[in-house]
Amino acid sequence: MVVNQTRGKVLATKARLALRARERMKGLKGLEGLKPGEALILRPCFQVHTFGMRFPIDVLFLDGQGMTVKAIHSMRPRRISPWVLEARTVLELPAGVLRETGTLVGDRILLQPVPTGNGMAFLREDDM
To answer: Domain of 33: which CATH number?
Structure first.
């Protein structure tokens, strides 16, 4: 689960974690879109692109303490974000989530693992 602690708003209930280079490179390419409540967490990451994607996304860049250092609303396909050198994690969300939740630069974002049969974990690439 992904929560904007500053605003008290849930940004995503089902977040896939991409840690390996292959997972980060694939990202959301080839998907038809993100469903409401879904997100992709890229770590480490300080720049993203939407080449090979068919839909816009909201993008949050977080520093090592989970503070939002840059927010991009409705990043369209075939675009590249600026380098955000202070970012350690990027969160990709369905377009409109940032506006709907009032998420701003400076907000603290909590990435909370979900319960599984073996304890707590984020969803991996094959789980979505």
So the answer is: 2.60.120.1140
Please determine, for residue 125, whether its predicted confidence score (pLDDT) is greater than 50: no
Average pLDDT, integer, range 83-101: 97
- Give residue 14's domain range: 2-127
Q: How far apart are CA 120 and CA 113, in angstroms?
A: 6
Distance between CA atoms of residues 41 and 96, nearest Å: 17
- Give the confidence band of 115 by pLDDT, cuts at 50, 70, 90: low
Domain total for the chain? 1
